[in-house]
Specification:
This protein is an alpha/beta fold. The protein is built from eleven helices and twelve strands. The chain has helices spanning 27-43, 64-72, 92-105, 122-125, 133-148, 186-195, 212-224, 244-266, 273-280, 291-305, 321-343; strands at residues 7-12, 48-51, 79-82, 85-86, 110-115, 153-155, 163-166, 178-182, 198-202, 232-240, 287-289, 309-313. The strands form two sheets. It has an eight-stranded parallel beta barrel with strand order 1-2-3-5-8-9-10-12, surrounded by eight helices. It has a two-stranded antiparallel ribbon with strand order 6-7. Helix 1 crosses helix 2, helix 1 (27-43) packs parallel to helix 11 and helix 10 (291-305) packs across helix 11.
Length: 344
Amino acid sequence: MTDFPLVLGLDTFGDVTSDEQGRPVSHAQTIRDLVEQGVKADEVGLDFFGIGEHHTDDFPLSAADVVLSAIAARTENIHLGSAVTVLSSDDPIRVFQRYSTLNAVSNGRAEVILGRGSSIDSFPLFGYDLADYENLFEEKTNLFAEILKGGPVTWEGKTRAALQDQDVVPHLDTPLPTWIGVGGSPQSVIRAAHYGFNLMLAIIGGSPSRFAPFSDLYHRALEQYGRDQLPIGVHSPGHVAATDELAREEFWPRYLEVITQISKTRGFAIPTKAQYLAEVGPKGALFVGSPETVAQKITATLKNLKATRFDLKYGMGGLTHDSLMTNIELFGTQVAPRVRELMA
């Protein structure tokens, strides 16, 4: 794993924040604040800033590439990408066009993380049948891989119109790093290896160590497909504040409220305070705490999973913009340097 550079970044779903009186701000203000958060991530030296596609009232980030372009115009170094793009309900041609355009605007700083979509809101919104969930992702991933090869594309499938020697523009002048986001499916791990895409492990509950077999499977699959080894990343939620106690207390009521809401459509169990604290602990999936606590946990997770990238999914509906900016400041100026020191 030491062959790949250590990458430390932030992901967001554009969670709607609240003002100082606890009132939700508008979608428009949430998006404008998000641009400021991306700029802040660049200022504090982070490597990546990603936006996950969602289409709901509490996560109104349906056009991540547009927001990322606004951030690109005000930054110089940070890489920008999706986290994830729900490819199953999108068109691979359009996804490539949007992110190759972002790559041009940002001078080669764009990346894309493709996923099947654990949030299925986009399927009815765009007229897709959930019965086609697996086939849509398989075919569209196949087409996206063909486009990335460059040159005219000839492709045929059941989920969209066939292509014959189709030139897909704009052409890339620098690579567009592409990842597959995996939440617990061995088939998705093998799919990533098959197409030669990097692997992003989305760990949102339970012990991160249970994903270690996926890292091993990915390495073995790459070997069997005759491919060179590729980087593995980890995406997990969390919150950084000055002290462990402050971080836990800021995050808990917001986490409880959001999980309670999501449980209505996704079947999540509503957590107790004890279960929340277990997830915050060293064997859980929540990276909540002081800079030192979060840095130690990230380091242990990366080493255990043979990964070289960690993207903290920061924010939670109801937190304030100022709280998120403090989180970003601490992650960039204290957590990231400490992780780099511990991983050296």
